[in-house]
Amino acid sequence: MKKLIYLLIGATVLLSSCGGDHKEKEKHTQTAKGGVKYGGVFKMNETEDFKSLYPLNVTMALEQRIASQVYQGLVKLNQEDLTILPSLAEKWEINEDATSYTFHLRKGVMFHDDNCFDGGKGREVKASDFKYCFDRICVSEPSNQMYWLFKDKIKGSNEYHESVNNKTPLEGGISGVKVIDDYTLQIDLNYSFAGFLNIVSHFACVVYPKEAVDEYGLDMRINGIGTGPFRVKKIKESETVILERNPNYWDIDEHGNQLPYSDGLKFSFNKEKKSELLEFKKGNLDMIFRLPLEMIGDVVGELDDAKKGGNRPYIMQVVPALSIYYLGFQHKTAPFNNLDVRKAFNYAIDRESIVTYTLQGEGRPALHGFVPPFKGYDYENVKGYEFDVDKAKKHMAKAGFSNGNGFPEITLQINPGGGGRNVQIAEVVQKMLNENLGINIKIEQMQFAQHMENYETGNATLWRAGWIADYPDPENFLNQFYGNNVPKELSTKAYINSMRYQSPKFDSLFDIALREVDQAKRFELYRQADQVASDEAAVMPIFYDENTRLIQVYVKNFPSNAMEYRDMTEVYFDYDEE
């Protein structure tokens, strides 16, 4: 799936991108065994503000990109191919029917030094710390969005969750999470679940100390105390986050060099993609993620001109993403509690035109199910919605709104991010629905945090949304439609299944798939569930995304992947490559 493209940029761009004298940069690096180099601060930008870096409240991709450098869990993902790798657990065993997982922790792993500890020195991580953190996943509070990860799956998770809600917490927490000894943790499940390691790889399953929770409480959102390769040095919200190298990090590379290589990471929060690209060209950023739509043509032109001149390259990485861009329907209220209305909206949209003209070829039209193209998953055999105005009109007439007559004006709620594409796509959808169905759509913009709060609490009727895989499994996408994730009250916050979609047929297939140990059979059951959600027009898929990066030529060991999962531990700078 991955394609790595080396592109060239004109001489003026190259000179401005160097960001200073070669010899001056070289002063800040030092060669180690194997030719890798220590030193330098990796600089990147985000175009939205974060709301929280506390593991149980990280719901935005940008928050995870920051916080995952500070915290670690039992396992992690391979940055190149997204396979499961050991992290704080050096090994594990799974019983024959995949109902019990036993993890063996590394010895000598230390939490970051912090004033929450006696004497300010971090202590060793024990299995009881994971037990503490996993129990917290099942505690209902505004700062916890992650109960869905353990709900129904781990023995005792539902019972503990209910006991905490009733203010009579069960002694011992989740019964299925057991501390065997200081370095052994056992997790017992309610049913066979071969994909459980994917759950454990989720960012919410990282470890943090009780001392930090006691010390900082809600301020954990900006006080990250973990075991990761970098630790929090300075946070100035809406402006910058600076992480510094953890001098006590536990891991080494294949040559025996202590990790990480970089001195630190700096995140800026420039909201304008044009300015971000300019800063990259000046050499003030080491990478940018996604290009501004209105500048793609100019950038490609620069790259083509530079090829002819034989100048040195930047590196452009383009990878089909495990993410989908869609519009969500609120199923519990009119007009989208009507299946024919939802189908009419789906048929009325020309997805191929949106990708070709609005996105200028970035992405792929979502003409199949909700799960993007995924290795081993037969997504092409999920039938989605082609552009068909006649079918769209027939479904609207069947719903009682022939030629749009009597259909209420509704609001399409969006956030203004996405490098300009959110607004552009909303305007194109607005026009298509008006021309093809005779209905009026009002567009309302709000900042991302408010946008999410609105649709998660049932206060939006139609909204822009996207889902980026938390872990590489179709289950992570289809969980969005699982009826068990729908709260009883519309106003109760629903991070998962904000649409409030409920289908006995979908749930039956999804339940069976969860319990299937054979991966091929499991994926086929997921495909069938995906087809049900498509047939019932659970959402309006628009396109499957692509991850596009520009990185400076001197950046090494930084492969792209379908989740934009970033592990900065072994990234380094080699200015000899400029």
CATH architecture identity of the largest domain: Roll
Class derived from helix and strand content: alpha+beta
Instruction: Tally the beta strands.
Output: 22
Number of helices: 17
Strand content range: 15-25%
Give me the Rg, rounded: 24 Å
Uncertain regions spanning at least 5 consecutive residues: 1-20
Instruction: Using the alpha-carbon principal axes, give the shape.
Output: globular
Largest beta sheet, briefly? 8 strands, mixed
Whole-Å distance between the termini? Answer: 28 Å
Count up the domains: 3
Please identify which CATH superfamily of the largest domain we are dealing with: Dipeptide-binding Protein, Domain 3
Taking all residues together, what is the mean pLDDT? 91
CATH class of the largest domain: Alpha Beta
Estimated helix fraction: 25-40%
CATH topology of the largest domain: Dipeptide-binding Protein, domain 3
Written description of the protein model:
- The chain has about 575 residues and is an alpha+beta fold.
- The chain folds into three domains: about 5-45 and about 235-310 and about 555-575, 3-Layer(aba) Sandwich (D-Maltodextrin-Binding Protein, domain 2); about 70-225, Dipeptide-binding Protein, domain 1, CATH 3.90.76; about 320-545, Dipeptide-binding Protein, domain 3, CATH 3.10.105.
- About 30% of the residues lie in helices and about 20% in strands.
- It has 17 helices and 22 strands.
- The protein has helices spanning about 10-15, 20-25, 60-65, 125-135, 155-165, 195-200, 210-215, 275-280, 295-310, 340-345, 350-360, 390-400, 420-435, 450-455, 475-480, 505-515, 520-535, and strands at about 5-10, 30, 35-40, 40-45, 75, 85, 90-95, 100-105, 175-180, 185-190, 230-235, 240-245, 265-270, 285-290, 315-330, 365, 410-415, 440-445, 460-470, 540-550, 555, 570-575.
- The strands form six sheets. Strands 1, 14, 15, 16, 17, 18, 19 and 20 form an eight-stranded mixed β-sheet that branches.
- Helix 1 packs across helix 8, helix 10 packs antiparallel against helix 12 and helix 16 runs antiparallel to helix 17 (about 520-535).
- The longest helix has 17 residues, at about 420-435.
- It starts with a strand and ends in a 5-residue tail after the last strand.
